[in-house]
Amino acid sequence: MKVHFVKRPFHELLVLYNAETSAATLGEGDGMLVKVCDRAIAPEGATDSVIVAASLERCPDTNRAVIHAVRRLSTFQCLQRKAWLFRTASWSKFFCSLPGSPPARKFFVVLLLGVATAFAGEDSNPLARDPNAAKLGEFQFRINCAFCHGLGARGGGRGPDLTRAHKKYAHSDAEMFQIINNGIPGTAMPANGTNGQGVGMTETEIRQLISYIRSVEVKSASQPSGNAARGKQLFYGDANCSGCHMVDGKGGRLGPELTGVGGARTVESIVDSVRNPSRRLAWGLTEATKEFPQEYETVTVVTADGQEIKGVALNEDDFSVQIMDMSENIHLVEKDKLRAFAKSRVSLMPAYGVGVLSDTDLQDIVAYLVGVGAK
Amino acid sequence: MKRAISHKWLCAAMVLLASTDYGQVTFNRLVNSAKEPQNWLTYSGDYAGRRFSGLDQINAGNAHSLVAKWVYQTAATGKFETTPLVVDGILYATAQDNRAFALDARTGRPIWMYQRQLPGDIRPCCGRVNRGLAILGDKVFLATLDAHVIALDSKTGNVIWDVVAVDYQQGYSFTLAPLVVKNLVIVGVSGGEYGVRGFIDAYDADTGKLAWRFYTVPGPGEPGHESWEGDSWKTGGAPAWITGVYDPVNNELFWPTGNPAPSNRGEGRAGDNLYSNSLLALDADSGKLKWYFQFTKHDEHDWDATQVPVMIDLGDKHLIAQANRNGFFYVLDRATGKLLSANPYGKISWSDSKDAEGRPVPNKESEPTAEGRQVCPGALGTTNWMSPSFSSLAGLFYVSAREECDIFSTAPQPYEMGHAYYGSAYFPADGSEPYWGALRAIDPASGKVKWEFRHLSPSWSGALSTAGALVFTGDAEGNFIALDAVTGKVLWHFQMGGAVYASPMAFAVDGKEYVAIAAGSSLYAFGLP
Fold first, then answer.
1. For labeling, which of B73, B399, B472, B484 is most exposed (least CB within 10 Å)?
2. Tens of pLDDT along A19-48?
3. Is B125 in Cβ contact with A199 (below 8 Å)?
């Protein structure tokens, strides 16, 4: 590992950012003492491992100092904590009142940072450094999450692939905690313990779960190789995706809205949905996880007066179906008043083979979708 | 002076009124519940578990004209699983988070409301639900999510007694409606997902004193203990989370039990794992086991047998039938527990042979593996806790069937007290058909499905049959549906706007019949215009 020394003024503690593990470690000189952050964003401009400074504030009586790490290092952010004990004046006073030589005090500060890591509250994952947590979290995952997110968190057709390092909703552990606990309104992601799927998790169990999800993240998930700008042109132009699909509020309404798809699904699964649209229609979620019933099933009905209507089911229950036809007209029909009613899981979307849409064109479109979905 | 006398008379009149309006429910009335079909006195409507109403004012001829009469909103979130009781014009029910309430059954207007203050760290698997109350004398009985059993004053909702059944922090909870037999309040515990040791308790209705406890996992020295490997019995599960039934003739309780723990991993608990996934016949006075029948031995698919068993008399045959979560409809001799027949009533892939007793036995291909194997039915079963119904008039047994297959995967998991203990995961197979469901009518004599009404998706609604030749059920999309009990033809339906996780019941006040069901966060009552 190559380490660049960015700056090292006198009396500053050092933070090492390890680009391979994205961990941040606090120390002095090359003697690293304690890892303060398991997942840190690289300092601005740094492409490799780097050491940056955590500044110290001198105490009024000269030799003593207080760490002001986060404030000064604006380009260095921990994903896991916002609450640093040393931000508060009372801690400054406490530190300054300590007896002893500066090195001893520094060591004490480092120890306190270790304590802070363990008790920093909801903003951080105090179990991030516990190797057993990820294993325990895997049990929680299997019980509570695998039904939708698949074994190994690789996506189960219903829920997104969570091995992607870049997640649509949850970037920090704190955000992930919030989402697991409260769900995502308007989606099939339920609040902890409310869905009849799995059990309610304690806070500790949720943190174990987060440790597990972090442990299976793939740093370099396959990235689209295409040209996003050209993909956008194709999407709204020659490939005519926008005839049925909407992105960022523009496009058709017959097919699924695709603004978020690039952030939720793998490149491979998007490619597969274009090449083989009928292989897996959107999964209708049953029971409590069923937020929105649309599965984009193809419905063909013949009304009492002989009119044939073909479209996708916007909604359906045992007795009625709400259909959008190919021209985006909405038809509300009662099943017992129809001459014929047929449903099919063959998608209305044509299969885009390579003859219609080349691999290059498709990669460009996927690059566009992934770019939009990452926003 | 005159004024004082009239006041005295008024008091006397009020007492008289009260004693009329709040008729005391006695054990005798519970035994003879069929004689007062206007009331719904137990969870299943009678001791036999039939969920059958003798009312026929609403019938196959006029069901098409049913209308909503009132709606009571609980303002609670989560699954609303209650079956109300109705006694002499007053409706008693529960809602999420251990709410309990009494309503004017004519209007749905509240009389009293109770809500338990639950600790923050309760561990109910699968929702903060409750399925209803039991009633005796001037008390209604509630079993709580923090594993207490409490008696409330049926006039006020005030707590009369409150006893701790077990430490909830070990993973125990109660979700079921208690059953009153004689002077005992009988409850079965939940917690099969937490590696508890299941039990069924009986409490004195006057004092709350524990009268007996039957552990559904036998301890050292007890028969059946040898069916557990090593110490696995200590975390063996076998909860008893659905209300059982009672045969007054022999003073016998029939109580079903749930999965062994961990639910989807058999390694480490070699043996049959008695009395998980069984039907137990217990002496109601002592809790002593008279016989048992285990539906699924050494279960690895979470196929609890916690479905209401139904006592059925066919000619001189005294039977007890259960549409089991594992996909088979079992008929047993009620006196001995001997298996008489077992027929599938939904898609099953786990068994292709039967043992000497006629019990379906699992095939090798159904054993969960680390990578996972697809098995039908799925983890939630061909049916679940929603109540079946039996109409002796139609001669049919009605059950909400679920058609879903899952991939079952297993992984070793250490037991930790109070923590979920599955050893497993289950999930739908790629490319599998969307799940669906159906209300099915089974002829208990042949075990054959006579008709079905197909639901778009699997339903968590139970069924109610009535003397009006009707069967009622709900669906996951929020419909409440009346069907012809003999033919299965849909006669009426109403969109309630919330999924059904409850079983319907019927009652009458002032000579008017109502059918009630919980859906979404509301309790609905329907009647004729």
1. B73
2. 676 666 555 433 334 445 555 555 555 566
3. yes
